[in-house]
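Cytochrome P450 structure dump, as promised
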Amino acid sequence: MTTSETAPGSASAPGTALRDLPPVRREDRGLPVLGRMLDYARDPVGLFASQWEHYGPVSPLRLPGRRAVMLLGPDACGAALQNRDKAFANGPAWTELVGPFFRRGLMLLDFEEHHAHRRIMQEAFTRSRLEGYAAGMHPAIESGLAAWEPAPGFRVYRALKDLTLDVAADIFMGGAEDSTPREMRRVNRAFIACVQSAGGVVRADVPLTRWGRGFRGRRLLEDFLRHYLPARRAHPGDDLFSQLCAVEGDDGRRFGDDDVVNHMIFLMMAAHDTSTTTLTTMMCHLGQHPEWQQRCREEALALGPRPGLDELDTMTSVDLVMRESLRLQPPVPVVVRRAVKDTEVLGRRIPAGTAVVVAVQFSHLMPEHWTEPERFDPERFSDERREDRSHRHAWEPFGAGVHKCLGMFFAGAEVKAVMHHLLRGFSWSVPEDYVPRMNNHSLPFPADGQPVDLVRR
Ligand code: HEM
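structure tokens r here:
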């Protein structure tokens, strides 16, 4: 594609003249080395709004050591996510952000190689496999929640993080049979270290830095998985680890040991933090809106103690609350890309090598697409209203295009299964005026652990 034409499938009208990005205003230069990174960490939505106001949907952005562009609004974000002319790559962009800690995870592969790996991996996410995973989640959820000690100001984020790790150990690993709880806590910390590495300033294996901890974490996770790999190959169970060892694409290809380890580390990260944030946000809103908590509880009580996938699908109010929570606080507020050839979005030239920040969260908050976007209003997703259909890309917490989240239905099942047990076993409240202060250095989480007043029912 030449830069003087409109890209096939791009959002520009054919024949529209291309324009360069506007220059960065003096006040938008940010700090000398970090550019706008700290502004993003302090207030991502404020940064999105300011970029939108001053530059529109395709805005120049200062990031460390690289020419960058921020895409805002569903047209611009949709063009990059759909990536019709294959101008945007994931691998170089995500590697720069999360470093080497999730190397060769599915999200970091591109084009033909990504396609080949995705075709194999999706065999581990079919409806029938999900039914098995959903059925297997209940014991870990029950024993995890039994250990909770409810109190006023109970810090729910850490507790949910431990709970989702326990679920992952069962569903992903088939139980970590010879690991003690202490070792599992180290594994949890290793994940956290890998994820938190994204916000690291010193980008090398230096002790006591985020990256140093990330490298140690990655080594620990590799050892942990390699320890269990021979047993999963020899005696496959219903867990995701065994499935990754066994599944074949339609051309008969399977994953080798390195692929299995790399995919497992990425999958556990992809599943663990995102589900935790979703549950945490849902608990916050349900604690502030007792009428919704009651409505969801009635659905949970109408089901048996260990609902299967079909029964979880009947929890429609919980589903509305989940969608609304993902709108207001998407666990992945931005995704990143790198232009691998000269291209354009909405008539703006984007040269090869540009870092691209696709700010999906901003689309979730635009008054053009949502009524009173700041308000918690799950009914906006009801069949009668379906505000998410105001634009094909208005609601994209799971991304879009060939990299769209492979675990979307898994996440729905896990979140509903946990909510089912939470609603039956506990009730909780959160002060109406509580607004969690998010730590946005990598994936967002509430810096104060999100206190809720929790009681057992
Ligand atoms: C609410 C929970 C979740 C959210 C919000 C979420 C969000 C996302 C997003 C935005 C992407 C696209 C990244 C990009 O375009 O660069 C993605 C990709 C991915 N997610 Fe999720 N995710 C969630 C849960 C899960 C779970 C539970 C799993 C696995 C069990 C999972 C596995 C994946 C995989 C494998 C990819 C890469 C897909 C590809 O590149 O082909 N995710 N996720």
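The radius of gyration is 22 Å.
lmk if u need the other ones
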